[in-house]
Design a protein that fits this description.
The chain is mainly alpha-helical. It is 65% helix and 0% strand. The chain has one domain.
Length: 165
């Protein structure tokens, strides 16, 4: 085939084909954040278990409705994310999530400290459940500290709950 027999489209049609390709190309897949993945993991594996009388999960049954009602920046979301990131961070190759868990935990602690100064907010379901979520986070981390330093560690969360109730 010789170059003389090739018929090239006008430059404008090449540009239009290129623009069409850009607009209709398959977009890259969306990757959920580590926080979203960890929270889904936590709910799937620890909260949303089959409903049977012999497998009651204590306060975790209250988590779903309160979590859904709370704002994304609430203490409950932050406390839940800390526990979720910590749980998923224990799996091989996911240890970097433990640092994110500590950050969420610290943010939630600051917010709860402020809330505890308000006599009404300090007794809200969201704050009490946030403090209970702290206990899940602290049990794992205090167990590690206890093993490292060979001393029993009493959770500060239990002290807070005792003070509120």
């Amino acid at each position: 085939m010789s170059h003389q027999n090739l018929v090239l489209p006008p430059n404008d049609s090449l540009f239009q084909a290129y623009v069409w390709y850009l607009g209709n190309a398959v977009p890259p897949p969306l990757t959920p954040s580590a926080e979203a993945q960890a929270t889904a993991f936590f709910f799937r594996n620890f909260v949303l278990l089959p409903q049977q009388a012999e497998s009651m999960r204590g306060f975790l049954e209250l988590l779903v409705p309160l979590y859904n009602q709370a704002s994304a920046s609430s203490t409950l979301h932050l406390a839940t994310h800390a526990v979720s990131l910590s749980a998923l961070g224990n799996y091989p190759g996911r240890h970097r999530l433990l640092q994110d868990a500590s950050v969420s935990y610290g943010q939630a602690l600051r917010k709860v400290n402020l809330a505890l100064k308000d006599p009404i907010e300090s007794k809200s379901d969201e704050i009490v459940l946030s403090i209970l979520m702290f206990s899940l986070y602290e049990v794992k981390h205090s167990a590690e500290i206890s093993v490292i330093f060979k001393v029993p560690v009493l959770s500060s969360t239990l002290k807070w709950l005792y003070a509120i109730l």
